[in-house]
Amino acid sequence: MSDDLWPPHVTGDRAHATGDRGSSPVEFVLVGALLTVLTLSVIQLGLGLYVRNVVHDAAVEGAHVAALADTDRAEGVQRTRLLISRAVGSAFATDVRARESTALGTATVEITVRTTLPLIGLIGVPSGLEVTGRAPVERLAEEH
């Protein structure tokens, strides 16, 4: 056997393939990290939407309670705080306000909630999320 034939002569794409040796674990780690970040981002988006929906629904229900003929605005605020506290925690129910307004010529009650916008878990921007719930004020008909 002649010396110029051993090791076998490698040409073309196969010559570069030997330089990729050991890259599979690195690729696995990089792709795995990217997929993990993507998955956690989607979960965080879902959590943020959940908090927003809970706070909005609580504000709407609180406005409906406050708009009843035999209740006052404070009862609507209390109901809103209770619903938010039970669903996502009392830290999200600290800034709840009620006021009377008009919409399309009808008296309404507005419950406004300012709360934390969750960015990492439930930690986030204080007062970064503001939602308002409205309901028409109920009036008892006057008898003649």
The stretches of 5 or more residues where confidence is low (pLDDT under 50) are none
**DSSP strand content:** 25-35%
Count, helices: 3
Provide the gyration radius in Å.
Answer: 30 Å
* Total discrete domains: 1
Tell how many strands the DSSP assignment holds.
3
Helix share bin: 40-55%
What's the shape?
rod-shaped
Arrangement of strands in the largest sheet: 1-2-3
H/E element order: HHHEEE
Structural class: alpha+beta
How widely separated are the two ends? 122 Å
- Main beta sheet strand tally, sense and closure: 3 strands, antiparallel
What's the mean pLDDT score? 87
Please describe the structure with a list of short key phrases separated by commas or semicolons.
144 residues, alpha+beta, three-stranded antiparallel β-sheet, 3 strands, 44% helix
Structure, described:
This protein is α+β, with helices and mostly antiparallel strands and 144 residues long. The protein has one domain. It has helices at 13-17, 23-66, 73-87, and strands spanning 95-103, 106-120, 123-136. The protein has a three-stranded antiparallel beta sheet, covered by helices on one side. Helix 2 runs antiparallel to helix 3 (73-87). 20% of the residues are buried.
